[in-house]
Structures are given as C-alpha cells and as structure tokens.
C-alpha cells in the first residue's frame, strides 16, 4: 500500500504543512499539489465542494505525491466513507464534542473489528494498491476537530479513543464558542488557554495536535509550541489576497472609474 | 442596454485594468469579480476553459458590475458568436495577422449590415436588456491580438477595419515570433520597437491599444506610455505565486520531509 | 451585510411571492431570477438538485437582487450548513414534526450561542458582506415545514422555538398524512382545518406562515387569509404546462403521426 | 436501424412539429421529450449548449421516441460530425448562403462516397442499431438554414445539392439581412416575399421547407402554406412566458415591495 | 404506472440478473443498459457517484426498459428519497443490522401511512407515469443489505418488516465481520453457513434473497441455491479485467519498455 | 521537461501499445492509465468527449506515467492547441489528405519558427515542467491520420512534412473510401495494398507508422509488419464485450424474462 507520508513525517518528529482547498475545482487542486504542501485537504464542509467535485480534486492531487485529505461536512458515516473510498488518505471531522462522537467518527474510518466502515475501496485501492483492505486501518489518518468549549472540556475522553490519530483545532468556531470574535489573535487569554489545554491532552495521550491558522507567523508559532499539523491558508484566501495586492498597486495610480465590485 | 463601462472609461480618458481567468470555475470567477477589476477576461484560448464552463463563469461575473470579456480560442466564428450570445461584452481574438483576418473577426461580432453575426442573443439579452439586438454593434468591444512580426507589419491595415475597437498585444507570442525568449523584458529593443510601432498605429487610427503584462510595474509603465487596456496577472498565476510565498516561509523553518511535488 | 429583503417585506406587512427551482441548472435559475419573484427557492429535496448543482444556481440568482433560499433535503445539519455557506439567505426544512426537530433545525442555522452552526461562510461572506458572521443570525430566514398530522398537533411547540422565523405548509404530504389524495383542493374540510390551525398558531406566536400552492388562485386566497410567504409554481411545472398548451394548439390541427412521448 | 420518424411523417404528407432546446440541461430535455413533439432540436448555436452538455441532452431525449436533432454552431465539420456520432438524427446548419456551403455541410453528414463524414458512430450505433454505418446516409436529415438575402438569391443552387433534405428559414437573421427589425410580422412584404421564394424553390426541387416561428398562429399558417417542419417555441421562451403570466397575476394584487429583477 | 419488471420476474419464479454501476457516468450507464441486464444498480455507496451524477445515469438507463435501482450511501432518509424522486425503482440499503434499522429504511421508501417518504416524485412521475403517488408503495423495491454477523443474528426480525421486499447479502463486509478475508470463496464454512441462514430466513418469511458475487460461477450457483437477485460484476471491474487481458496478450510478445502504470 | 516515453520507445526500436478512451470520464481514464498502456489517447473526435471533459481525463492519466495523447475532432487549430495546452503529449489528427493539410496540422502543434502554435501552455507547463516552451517542439508527437484513398495517393507528400512524427491509419474510413465495408479483415487485397503502401512511405521517409486495430491478433501482426504504434481496443468496446460475455453465460442458464435492451 502507498505510504502515508504524513505518518512518516510524524514518526520522524516533523510537522506537516497542510494546504487547504475550498475552490470546487480539479485544476486549482492540481496547481496546489505541485507547490510542495505535505498534504492538501479537500474541504467538503465549508469549502464549496460536494462529493461529485471532491472526486476529480482527489484525482488531481494524485498527479503528485502530496497526500490527499478531506474534511467531512459533518460527523455522518455516509459521506466519510465515500471520501475514503474516493482515495482520501485521512479525514478531518468537524465538531467532535464528546468521546461518543469521536468513537462514531473513528468507527466510520476503520474496517471491522476496529470500526464499522463498509468495504468497497473503489478508487482507494487503485490509488493506494491492491492490499488496501488489509492495511487501510493503520494507514488512514483520523483527526477530530476540537472547536467548542464543550470539546475542550471533554478532550481527554476524545483523545483516548483507540484509532484516533489526533485532533485539529478550529479557532474560529472555538472563539465563537468561548464568546470571542472569530478571527482574533491566538494570544487572547481564553483562546490561548483552551489551545494549551488541548495540546497538553494530546501530549499526555501521545496523539497528534493540529490547528488551522491564517498566517505563516501563527503557523510557525504553533509548530514551535508542539503542533504537528498546521494549515496556513486556503486557496480562496490566497487568490483573494493576491488579487487585492495587485489591484492596490494599480488603483493607487489609477483609481477605477467605475466601482465594479459592489454586489447588490 | 446595460452600459459597457469599458467604453465609458475610454471615453473619459482612462485605462481599463483587466483581470484574467484561466481557471475553469465559476467560484474563482465570482471571487475575482468582487475584487475591483474593471473587466475580467474568460480565456477560452490558453485558459483551461471550454464553452460549457465559460457559461457559468460569465454568469458568476454578472453577480457584480465588472464587465465580462472572453478571449476566443481562435479566429473561428462559431465559438466567437457563442461567447457573445452567452453574454461576453467583448472579444479578444488571438493571432490576427492581416487585415482580412481582422475583417473576418470583426464581422463575426457585428450584426448585418456591419457584419455577419447570427441573431440569437439568448443570455446576452437577459444580461444586457431587451434592446440588445439594436445596440449590440455599438456596445460590444472587439480587440484583435497583435502577436507576430507579420501582424506588426500589417498593423495599419488591421486597425483600419471598421468596427474594430482596438488591438491587444500578446508579448509572449510576439517575442517568439521576433526570435526572442518569451517572458523577457519589454525593454528588449526588438520587442520595444514592435510595441511602439503598434501603439503608434493605434494612435494614428484612433483606436485603443491594450497589452498583456505580468507585473504591476510593466502594467503601469504601459499605461503611462498610452495603453488603455492592461492585464496584470491571471488567476492561476496569482494563486501559484501566493502559495509559493507561503511555502517559502514555512519551509525556511521547516523543510518538508518528503518532496511531495515532483510530477512523474 | 446585504439586506434580506424578505424580512423587509414582512416588516412592511407584505407577503413574499416565492418562485421554485427544481431544474438542476444555473441558466434556468438566472432566467427565473430576472422575472421578478421576491425570492427563489432552490429545492434540494424534491428538486433534481444536489449540492454541486445548487452552488452555481445560487450564484445565478445573485445576478439579480432576488433573495436566494434553499430547501434542505432533510433535517440534517451537514447539508443545511453547506447551503448557508454557499449563500442561501434562508432554509426551508422538510418534515419538522416536533419541537425537538425544530430546535435541531434552527440550531443548524444559527451560530453559537443561539445554535451550533459551524463558522466558515466561504461564499456567503462574498455574497453578503464582510460582517456576515456578526449579522447572519438575525438575517438568515428559517422556515420549518409542517406537513404531517403530527406536526399540526405539535405546531405550538414548533413555532415557539427561538430563532424560527416561520413555518411552511406542504399540502401534498399533509394531505397524504390526513388520509386525503395529494393535489386536492385546499377547501377539503380536513385539510382546511389543519391549514387554519397552523395559521392560527403562527399568529399567536407572531411568526410567519408560508404555504406551497399550485395556482395563482390558491396563492392569492392564502395571502388574503394571512399567509405571508407563498409559492405558486415550480420551473418544471411552468415549462411542462407551457409546452403542453403550445402542443395542444398544434395537435388540434395537426395530430402527431407518431406517438413520440410514450415512455417504455 | 431505428426509423427516423421525421422522414416517415414527411413521406405520409404530414408536417413535423419541432420543439427547441436552448437550456443546457438533460432534465429539461427529458421533460420536453415527454410532451409530444415530433422532434426536438438541441440548439448548439444560439442555445447555451456546448458539446459536453449536448450529449446528455441527446441521451435524455432518447428516453422517448421523439427524434433528436441538433443545430450546429456553424458550418464546421468537426462539431457537426460529433453531434451525429452522439446520436443526433439530423442537423440544422446555420447561415448556408451558397451552393458550395451547402455541399460542405451535406458532405460532413454523409459517409463516402456521398460525403466525407468520418466513421465512428460511437453513441449513434447504440441509439440507432448495429447497421448504422450502412443506413445513416439515407436516415440522417440535413436542413440548411436560409437566413440572408444572399441565401435567398442562391436558394435554387442550395436546394439542388444531392443529399440535402430541406431548408430551414431563420426569420430573425433574414429580417436583419433584409433591413427589417428581427421579431416582426411574417407578413411584412419583403420578408413574405423571401419566404415565398424559398418555399417555391423547395417545391420545385422536391425538398422539405422548414421555418422557425414564435407563435402557434404563425406555425399553423406556415404549415398551411406548405411548410413541412415548424418550430414554435424554445424551452427558455416557454419558461419565461409562463413565469411572467404567473407573476402578472400575483403582482396585480400584490405589487412586489422590492424590485428584485433589475440586473446591474 | 410503468411496470417494475423485477417484480414480474419474481412473480414468474425467475431470478433477476443485475448489473452494477460504479463509474460516475451516463454513457457507461447507457451502454450497460443496452446489454440485457434485468436491472442496473447505480451504486451511490462504494461507486464513485454522488447525487448530481446519479441523476443523468438514471436518465441514461431509461433509454431502455432495464429497471434502474440505486444503492444508497447509508441508511439516511435524505438521499434515499432523492434517489427515489430521481426515478430509481428500488433501493438497496447498506448495513442493515437490526429490525429497527430495517424499519427506518423501509419507511423512507414508502409514503404514509406505510412510511414517511415525502411526496414530490419530480422525475419519478415522468419516468413512471402520472399515477406514481398512488402506486409507488407497491412498485418500488426495497432490499436491505445483510453484511455483518449482527445482521445475520437479527435476520428474522429484519425480514419481518412490512414493506421490505428482500435482503441483499454483501459478502465482502460479511466476511470481514466474520473474521475472514474479503474476496474469499463462498464455500468457506463460516461464510457458507451465514449465507444459508439468511437464505432460509427469507424463505420462511416469503421475501426475496439477493447476493453480490464476482463471477458467473458463483452467481449461477447462488441462483441454483434459491437466490432470486444476483449481481455478477461492476462496470469498473469489467473494464479493468478486459483491459488486462488485452494487455496480457500484447505484453507477452511485446513487453512495455517503460513501466507506465506504477502509481506514486 | 518530462520525457515523452513514446519517443524513447521508438528510439529503442520498440512499438507503442496505445489504449483508446471514448468514455467521457476521468475515472475510466484513471483506471485505464493504471493498466500498463504505453500511451492513452483521449478521442475528442469519435469519442463522446468535448474539451471540458478532456481536461480532467488528461489530469487522470497524469496520476501515472502513461503518456497522454489526444485525437483532435478535426484539422482545426483552435482545439488542437487547447488540447496541447491541457497537457496532451501528442495529437492524432483525422482526415489528413494532402501535404498542405499535414502542414496546417503540424504547424498548429509547433511554436514559431517551426509552426504557428500560440504560446500559453497553462497546464502543459505544470505537467511537463518549466522549460516546456523551450522543448515542446521536439517533445510533442504529431500523427496524421491516413484514412482515404486520396491520402494514400498523397502519402509521400504528407510524410515529408517537417515536424511530422508519423502517420496513423484509420482502417474504417479507409475501407469506406476504398469501397469496402468498414470492420472487415485487414487482409482484403485493396485494404492490404493501401496499408502496405503507407507503411512503405513512412519507412522511406523515416517516420513512424501507426494503425488502429480491433483485436490483439491484428495488432500483433501489424507490429510484426513494422508498425510502431498500435491501438487495440477502446474503453467502450472493452466494457461492452466484457458485459456481453458475462450475460452470455448468465442467460444460457437463465434467459431474461423481459427483453430489457431493445431501444425504441
């Protein structure tokens, strides 16, 4: 079975630099895959991506050795299994608030007796190799999102679930849940404290801690802190920011005559 | 009929800042349309875009007041007319080398008696208004690409074609045609000379000169020179460059353990 | 944040005339959006529409000021949140039979602390504006479908759920549930009684009552009764009926020689 | 080989009532196919349809016995042959102005020695039967559009081309070419004269005359005159008109508070 | 309502030969539909197929009299109802382990009072006929998958659910659940015993037993045993195997110089 | 630039075993790419494939080291260049009958000064490497189809065109052109003679001869004769044949009760 190089990086003590795909498109996925991310996550939750578009995106990532992951839309076994069968080498599952939810999630990613995933790795076996059914349970990565105060409270139970590889902090939802504005600094006391508590729990349990950031500064700081899986920016954000800097220069000199951008 | 604000900018003495779409996707088109470009060109030639994808992209641009243009794949009337019927408010046509080719191109964009465009503006009339057939000939913009030595030689005949609004220089192909490497400086003598000759011809004839660039520096310099329509960067290029700068920072600190990007 | 004009109409005492989209297509969505409906509902339940097609339909509606809504396939948070992130300005949720189901539905549409919607309004923030996260809870419309005898029985509990804007009666399913043929007259005693009971409950609670109809007569009668949100006809029905009237005329004179329409 | 019932109708002295598909969608194509049109034309010229969407539309028509036709985007052999290989049982070709153009068109639809169509009826042979290559030349219908003054002048040469089954008048373009407004009455003298001249030429040559109309009145009048193939209305037009009549009723009583339909 | 010929075959004492679609494509679906399978199952679970692709596949099958079925991704009512509304004439539901799960599944497929399916058979009524709502409950086929040891234990309760037409054994998952390697012989004692127990339960209850196989030998043997619905091979498997036999011959003589097939 | 291993095989004296893709789908393309063909040709002529589907198919092939080729729909530069920009590493062009046509074809595939291909290898440079523009002219393979009597007559002129890598015989069209039934034996004297004449001309000129076959027997015989590029079977044909053999076995025992396959 094709190696899951994310696990290799972890085993070697490194941290995974993950890219994020929210554009529903196989060409942008292929372009991103050629840039050097260790892994790319097809975001089927907040990305504008349903299953029928996720599939060619997973194919496009496979034109390189970048590891394809997917974020499921919700903790629902139907779509999680479909994404795995399509060749995702790991699942990030949103809104895991309790140990029971973590068990349901992990179970959907593991064949019996470790879980209740149904066998039929149609594309996965082509991507990964003929021994997929034998080795998938130890190859596929499972990351539970910690993004509410409740989840932070329950984090020890969550990370104790056998077969869970790690957690992934969603700072936006976690901020809202803690009564903060989303998008604020990681240094805000209530947020920082929650992040630290989660990180400590993963270290006690020996699982991986990951986190979503929106700047290289935050990402590097989090790696330094001990996070082993960081996301810096989504494709939509990268494109938007890049276009804005070009236009900022052009408009300085050359203010647009017509305000083209106002939506209704 | 909805105003073609490109023409308004020109009538007011301004220059159009045009964005470039090569990603075959309606979401990236919508994102780009919200950034403030005066116009956006759906590139059906070198962009990875056929008609069936160009259509939703033109719809996505119409969620804003940004003017939608299209580059045709070639000087072939079938596709040019389809793009106009789909609501493109102007056509950039590649590889116009002679006056006769310019006449064929312009004719495809104009209803009789100015041209031979067939009547059936299915989406165009919804986008632009019920009087489309009456006003399209004076609203739709036509830009002929000058991108070979032959075209430079024939530029006076090309710009003299009635109904042609302007030309658009393609520096890559023009460089190759002049025996230079594509992607080189606009200041290379042979290229600079050709650009100047084309610009002068447009000014003699009173039509617009446009040019494809790949930096804000070049774009601003060209506007200063007298170009009235400049493209700075494509969506694919913006995304690629933005991803590369993020990864450059991340890797400095944190060299990827596995070279994920090597294609076969 | 872009105004939700449905709410404005309600605040001004008016009734919303809603169009219905069951054709999985962005062009028909755009055409419908240009006709003057106050809102258009992308029907992801009985319409032939999955997420990957709903997205460009929502984009197409955004070429006008018509308010885009979506009917979810079922009371499942994954898809409801995806439709909201894609820019739907309200959700109609089928088969809400109890207060608990209404709470689950409304919670999926509201960020904490009002609900448990996950933050990541990828397209919604482009469509609606940068302050989306701050104002979405008070802007997004939630309508629970009342379409069983059980729901009618539980209607007071349902309409009492905080954050629920109103209910939407589905007369076909309600008829079946009441032991009547679907498609029958709204004046049938058992159906009329249920409709009246639901309407009364909404008026007691001060929430909006909406209803699906299939004729302008019924729609106008329901508005007169006090319904504030009415649907008259779906795109598929409009197309079918229009084609049938043309063919009825043509065949009167000119009976088709070959019965082309018999399915297998 | 499956019978081309259009030809059967003609052989029995009848007239074909043709429906028109401009919506790029297989569901609307299937709905239209179930209404009873003798044939349906997938309009790849002014319809919003490229090849990749035309294919599932042709499949959808094949769920009934309605005969699938296609209008080519232009007199270009590549696309004409692709539409035939996809199962179109006839081609309507726009803007045939000379006998030479008619010969090029017909040649693209006929295998050697009658023409130069390339052999490879991938879907056509599944749709029509294993003897497709042997019988396609006598089964496939070819209709050349007469829609300019020049074409009217050359009509005798055009209809004389062996293998051409008939002509199809495009009144909009013909009106423009004659210096009239498109969409006007068929009774305008210059237009009426041209229509009569074309009809007479077909009758002298023994080929079929067809015409595009936009009302049952015109369609019936044209059949009476001797036209054997009439189109009444496109799907987009049917949907638009039907939506408008519903809204006209609703707004009479209930003027929309917000003008939702204004495009930018 | 269009006859469900699967039921007719069963009533006549025959066995249904079912084909299996995992390729997300309407052309391969149409090709398969023309080969003579009694029914074809669009596999929305392990097939690479989401709803937006399942729809045109169901349309493609309807170009023939082959009966279209679908396997749902999971026992979730939203997607099951969507597949039925799209025209599936039966649902195979994975992982039914208890009577309660069987009741939930069957309920999603039946209108009240037999179940809780919501009314809105948009395409189903076009495919099947105007009396769809009246007759769907007795026409649509429901098959519950038995594929765990738990399900075998609970089989009598499962098959006793009113409205369930039969069961469908999934030997891969059942093998894993029994501690065997998937893909092994049906003759392995533990597997054979389970198969026999399930078959016996269906015969006691008078419902149909179906099974997934991967060879004609197994399929014929199972029919002989009493199975009334057998699947032999999926489209992906058929294509793969056929390509491999061609290449085996070619390479014998002509070993490929470059190993083109190694994935990363 | 990524090596074109087709050329390497030729340089090593080997013959290329080419697979053929007519199914408009990226999954079947990926499956085929994993079987071991030296190259795969996306057939945009008789395959049911337009540009917007060809693109993800080329991506899917790139998940392996199999070389992606495309057959153009016709000798039209617009589409040929689009297929090359999308990453096709060679073009097979149908119906090349004269030296002038071969020059037009080859010119469309070569940058100046060897040809008139326009520069903009959007995906090609990602697939092949940053030096694409410098090396494409010597890497891309051009094969002109010889498939008429006229082409056989003109073959020496055709193969003499600089930049043409070889020819590809289309036996079906060639048979029709020679007055034979398509699909007949390669040993028919008139056909055999034409094949030999073409092969001899390529050998005189030192270019490659290729041929389309439909059996491994023919393919091997042609390799033995000196052909260096052979196609054995298309994906559609492989799937059809494989399904038919399964059904032949099943029906022997178990004749289907209902003839499901009859098209209308």
Furnish the topology, listing elements before pairings.
Six copies of one chain form a homohexamer.
Chain A: H1 5-11, E1 16-21, H2 26-33, E2 39-43, H3 51-61, E3 67-71, H4 77-85, E4 90-93, H5 99-109, H6 124-128, H7 132-139, E5 141-146, H8 149-153, H9 155-159, E6 166-169, H10 171-177, H11 189-205, E7 208-212, H12 216-225, E8 229-234, H13 235-253
Parallel strand pairs in A: 1-2, 1-8, 2-3, 3-4, 4-5, 5-6, 6-7, 7-8
Task: Using brief descriptors, characterize the structure shown.
16% strand, alpha/beta, eight-stranded parallel beta barrel, 46% helix, 264 residues, homohexamer
* Major sheet strand order of chain A: 1-2-3-4-5-6-7-8
Mean pLDDT of chain A: 95
CATH topology of chain A: TIM Barrel
Structural class of chain A: alpha/beta
> What helical percentage do the residues of chain A reach?
40-55%
* The CATH homology group name of chain A: Phosphoenolpyruvate-binding domains
Quickly give the CATH architecture of chain A.
Alpha-Beta Barrel
Count of helical regions of chain A: 13
Order of helices and strands of chain A: HEHEHEHEHHHEHHEHHEHEH
Q: Calculate Rg of chain A over CA atoms.
A: 19 Å
CATH class of chain A: Alpha Beta
Largest sheet of chain A: 8 strands, parallel, barrel
Measured distance between first and last alpha carbons of chain A: 52 Å
What is the number of domains of chain A?
A: 1
Q: State the shape of chain A.
A: globular
Q: Low-confidence parts of chain A lasting 5 or more residues at pLDDT below 50?
A: none
The count of β-strands of chain A is: 8
């Amino acid at each position: 079975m094709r190696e899951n190089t994310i696990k290799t990086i972890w085993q070697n003590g490194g941290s995974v630099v993950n890219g994020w795909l929210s554009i529903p498109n196989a060409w942008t996925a292929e372009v991103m895959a050629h840039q050097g991310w260790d892994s790319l996550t097809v975001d089927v939750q907040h990305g504008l991506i349903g299953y029928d578009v996720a599939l060619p995106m997973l194919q496009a990532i496979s034109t390189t050795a970048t590891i394809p992951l997917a974020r499921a839309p919700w903790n629902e076994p139907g779509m999680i299994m479909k994404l795995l069968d399509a060749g995702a080498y790991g699942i990030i599952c949103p809104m895991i608030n309790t140990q029971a939810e973590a068990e349901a999630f992990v179970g959907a990613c593991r064949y019996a007796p470790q879980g209740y995933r149904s066998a039929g790795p149609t594309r996965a076996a082509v991507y990964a190799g003929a021994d997929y059914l034998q080795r998938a349970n130890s190859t596929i990565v499972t990351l539970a999102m910690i993004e509410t105060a409740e989840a932070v409270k329950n984090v020890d139970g969550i990370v104790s679930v056998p077969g869970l590889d790690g957690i992934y902090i969603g700072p936006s939802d976690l901020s809202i849940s803690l009564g903060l504005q989303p998008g604020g600094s990681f240094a805000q006391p209530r947020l920082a404290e929650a992040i630290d508590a989660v990180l400590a729990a993963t270290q006690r349990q020996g699982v991986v801690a990951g986190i979503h950031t929106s700047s290289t500064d935050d990402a590097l700081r989090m790696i330094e802190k001990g996070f082993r899986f960081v996301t810096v920016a989504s494709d939509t954000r990268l494109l938007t920011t890049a276009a804005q800097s070009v236009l900022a220069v052009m408009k300085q000199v050359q203010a647009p005559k017509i305000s083209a951008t106002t939506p209704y």
